[in-house]
Design a protein that fits this description.
Layout (H helix, E strand, L loop, with lengths): L1 E7 L4 E3 L2 E5 L13 H13 L1 E5 L5 E5 L4 H13 L4 E5 L5 H8 L4 E5 L2 E3 L15 E4 L4 E5 L2 E3 L6 E2 L8 E5 L7 E2 L2 E2 L3 H13 L4 E5 L5 H7 L5 H7 L7 E4 L2 E4 L6 E4 L17 H13 L11 E9 L2 E8 L4 H12 L1
Parallel strand pairs: 5-6, 5-7, 7-13, 13-16
Antiparallel strand pairs: 1-21, 2-3, 3-4, 8-9, 9-10, 10-11, 11-12, 14-15, 16-19, 17-18, 20-21
Helix pairs in contact: 3-7, 5-6
Length: about 325
């Protein structure tokens, strides 16, 4: 038996901390030797089924090491005073797993810590720096592998799980703005581009700075309407751009701040944020970083030729056992959202 159907996905209905999706439109059905009665049963099941999905996260992730505790604590305090829901990871709590989970559906990421590199890719004395680069957790690294991330070189890669068009702001992280401590690398534009890719590849606007005070964050909290507006208010206003691999990298000559993204990008409002849900993030992590993309459903007894979302439609073509059908649909939606 083979079915091809298109199910309209209506706007999500929020029920407490859960979202409910009802599949109510069926079309483009192709039958191969299937009785009408079986078809009716299948359609009735599809029409009546409800898929329950956890509510999307919408928090601000702040990550800091012990050296930057004071500045980070002030950032967190300022955010909370404005009504933002904040997940703050610092010290031993800032593990690679917690950092990655904290990114799940985040509306902004603020990282205040070290930047890492692979041994042999930088001479520690202002030479050329080569990727990959990494965020450093308390127990390891979150590597940028092209435009994706990984928990280790050669390990499974995944796209950063935050929302698109969010601000990702790096403070004092080596390589992120073209500097390592007090030395500028020999290829700052390429270094910024390569460090940013793990974030911009997931649709983020990337801003990195070595200046103290986290000025750009306070610009946003003070009313800046976009990155361009915040940049105009900054002590160092970025005015120069260089095209690298088809991407504009904004950085002044010997500047201590850098930007890659859309200057019209905004910082989220407090009303957009909700409390962090660790259980939901854990499920995503197990499915996409630690586990397989089908969320722990082993050896599916079906053949799928295509699973994709187009505009407001979820399209699936499958063969054989319908018992696995709804598991596949739920898994596909979990991984899309």
């Amino acid at each position: 038996m083979q079915l091809h159907f298109t199910s309209h996905v209506p706007p999500l209905e929020k029920c407490g901390e859960w979202y409910k999706i009802k599949f109510f439109y069926i079309g483009d059905i192709k039958l191969h030797g299937v009785s009408k009665n079986l078809l009716k049963v299948a359609l009735a099941t599809v029409i009546c089924i409800f898929v329950f999905l956890p509510a999307a996260e919408a928090h601000i992730l702040v990550v800091s090491d012990a050296n930057n505790y004071d500045e980070a604590s002030q950032i967190v305090k300022a955010l909370k005073s404005k009504g933002y829901y904040v997940l703050w990871l610092y010290g031993k709590n800032a593990t690679t797993k917690n950092i990655i989970k904290g990114m799940y559906k985040a509306d902004a990421v603020i990282y205040e810590g070290h930047g890492g590199y692979e041994s042999g890719n930088y001479d520690q004395n202002g030479g050329t720096a080569s990727p990959p680069f990494a965020l450093i957790g308390s127990d390891g690294f979150v590597w940028g592998v092209g435009n994706q991330m990984s928990t280790g070189l050669g390990h499974k890669t995944f796209k950063a799980p935050f929302k698109k068009n969010i601000p990702v702001i790096l403070l004092h992280a080596c390589f992120s703005d073209g500097w390592v401590e007090n030395k500028e690398v020999a290829n700052p534009t390429a270094t910024v581009y390569n460090f940013a890719r793990m974030f911009t590849g997931a649709g983020a606007n990337y801003y990195a700075t070595g200046w103290n005070g986290a000025e750009i964050i306070y610009d946003f909290l003070g009313g800046a309407t976009s990155f361009a507006d915040a940049n105009n208010k900054n002590f160092e206003k970025i005015t120069k751009s260089t095209s690298y691999n088809g991407t504009l990298v904004w950085r002044n000559d010997h500047g201590i701040a850098a930007f890659v993204g859309n200057w019209k990008g905004k910082f989220p409002t407090a009303a957009q944020t909700t409390p962090y849900n660790d259980a939901v993030a854990e499920k995503w992590y197990d499915n996409n970083v630690a586990g397989n993309v089908f969320g722990g459903i082993p050896n599916l007894d079906l053949v799928t030729s295509n699973v994709y979302k187009s505009w407001n439609y979820l399209c699936i073509t499958l063969k054989n056992d319908l018992n696995y059908f709804f598991k596949l649909v739920k898994s596909a939606i979990d991984n899309y959202y």
